[in-house]
Structures are given as C-alpha cells and as structure tokens.
C-alpha cells in the first residue's frame, strides 16, 4: 500500500532491531538527528527512546524488525510478499512459525507441533526468535503509539531502488548500507557501535527501520502485501517499508 507524499518531516519515530543485548533502537527527530538507545526489553527500550531526545513531542510511530502477528497455521502472506519483492535476497526473510508452534515449551515440542500443522519442522533460527516475537506481542497493548513490522532488507531495497546483494555482515555490505542511509541524511549514532551485545549490522538495521517508520508517519510507505492482510478487530498484518 502506498500513500500520497506527506510533505516536510515533522515526526518523531523509533526504529528497533533485536540484538544479543536485547534490543537496539534509533530515534529520528524532526530535524533528522539520530539518537541511539539499547535496552534488555522492548518496553525499556521505548521508554529510553522517549527520554533520549530533547524534542517535546511524543513518538508518532515505532517500527520493529520482528513479526508480531504469527499465523495460526500455514504461511503468512506478509512473509511471502516480502520474499517475492526481494528476489535473490528472499532468504533474508524467515517464514514466521505459527502461534501454537511458538507457544510450545521446547524446540522438540515446537517441531512436533509444526509437523502436525504444516508437515515440516521449524528452523533453529526461527525458534531462536521465539522469545522476542512473544515479547513484542505481549507488549503491543501498552505501546505509546502505532507499531509496525518493518524488515531492514525490504527497507534498504526501497531506499536504494534494489536489494543490497552484499551481506550485511561483510565490510562491503556494511559500507553500502551506511552510505545509503547517509544519502538520505540518516547518520548512525557512532556510540552504538561500542555497546556490548550490539553488532554494527544491528545498528544499521535499526536505523533503516527508523527511516521506514518516518515514511509510515509521513504517509508514503509501502506494505507487503498490498493491501495488508486483515486479521479481524480492525487489525491488519503486513511488512512495511
């Protein structure tokens, strides 16, 4: 879904990515200055973000690189649409496990539930994100503003008009992503690179998620799929960029 241009940027937004320390965030203020925050939980991170700027406004939009509407079974349309968009980089988006799988007590139990639902086990990578997926889902009701799922590789593909092929964990990939952000005036806070449990790629991912959050606030973002998938009770599911 695309929207008309929203004019001059006047929004305060937060981009969030998971990391070994818990969560890392980049706040973009209306003057485009970036402020970095790190916290163990998503609630703590958002509170730190609200306190970290001199701007009097409250957060308008939060973007998070984490799915928070797992399907009850089957494949999530948002994952499939984003994968189709990314083409050769499609594997950077993992398929979100079903909610009953994520709620299993152990990895072995989760694989058994997944096989019963969809005929295949889940990956260790997907299981490793279980805690963060459930954490965000439980926190959503207390969020201070609208929250959207954003995937960094989708965002970078929109920022640069094509997916960035180089891995984000290589010097070339990091440089390409940093250059793309600087090209739109988003300078990554240098102090985040020294924080324990936060990788350089995590910081860049949070920054580009903030860039997409600013697009959402301005009304110029795209959704995958288009239109978003209705979930009931007025909720919709999509990956935004």
Describe this structure in words.
This protein is an alpha/beta fold. Helix content is 39%, strand content 18%. The protein contains nine helices and seven strands, in the order βββαβαααααβαααββ. Strands 3-2-1-4-5 form a five-stranded mixed beta sheet. A two-stranded antiparallel sheet has the order 6-7. A hairpin with a 2-residue loop joins strand 6 and strand 7. Helix 8 runs parallel beside helix 9 (200-218). The longest helix has 19 residues, at 200-218. The chain is globular and about 50 Å long.
Give the structure's gist in a few sentences:
By secondary structure, this protein is α/β, with parallel strands linked by helices. It has helices at residues 42-52, 77-86, 99-102, 107-118, 124-128, 130-139, 152-160, 171-183, 200-218; strands at residues 13-19, 22-28, 34-39, 61-64, 147-149, 223-232, 235-240. It is globular and about 50 Å long.
SSE arrangement, N to C: EEEHEHHHHHEHHHEE
Q: What low-confidence regions span 5 or more consecutive residues with pLDDT below 50?
A: 1-8
Largest sheet: 5 strands, mixed
Proportion of residues in helical segments: 25-40%
The spatial strand order of the largest sheet comes to 3-2-1-4-5
Strand proportion: 15-25%
Radius of gyration: 17 Å
Mean pLDDT: 91
Based on the structure, what is the oligomeric state of the protein chains? single chain
Which structural class do you get from the secondary structure elements? Answer: alpha/beta
Total of DSSP H or I helical runs spanning 4+ residues? 9
Distance between the termini: 10 Å
Shape: globular
Q: What is the β-strand count? A: 7
């Amino acid at each position: 879904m695309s929207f008309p241009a929203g004019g001059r940027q006047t929004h305060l937004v937060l981009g969030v990515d998971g990391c070994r320390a818990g969560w890392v965030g980049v706040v973009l203020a209306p003057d485009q200055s970036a402020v970095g925050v790190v916290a163990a939980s998503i609630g703590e991170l958002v509170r730190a973000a609200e306190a970290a700027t001199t701007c009097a406004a409250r957060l308008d939009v939060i973007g998070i690189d984490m799915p928070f509407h797992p399907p009850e079974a089957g494949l999530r349309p948002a994952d499939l649409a984003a994968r189709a968009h990314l083409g050769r980089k499609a594997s950077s988006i993992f398929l979100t496990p079903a909610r009953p799988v994520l709620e299993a007590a152990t990895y072995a139990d989760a694989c058994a539930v997944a096989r019963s639902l969809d005929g295949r086990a889940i990956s260790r990578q997907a299981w490793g994100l279980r805690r963060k997926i459930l954490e965000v889902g439980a926190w959503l009701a207390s969020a201070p503003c609208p929250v959207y799922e954003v995937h960094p590789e989708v965002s970078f593909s929109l920022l640069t008009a094509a997916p960035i092929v180089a891995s984000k964990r290589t010097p070339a990939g990091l440089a390409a992503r940093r250059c793309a952000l600087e090209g739109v005036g988003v300078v990554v806070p240098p102090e985040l690179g020294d924080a324990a449990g936060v990788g350089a790629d995590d910081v860049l991912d949070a920054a580009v998620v903030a860039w997409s959050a600013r697009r959402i606030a301005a009304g110029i973002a795209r959704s995958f799929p288009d239109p978003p998938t209705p979930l009931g009770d007025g909720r919709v599911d999509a990956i935004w960029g």
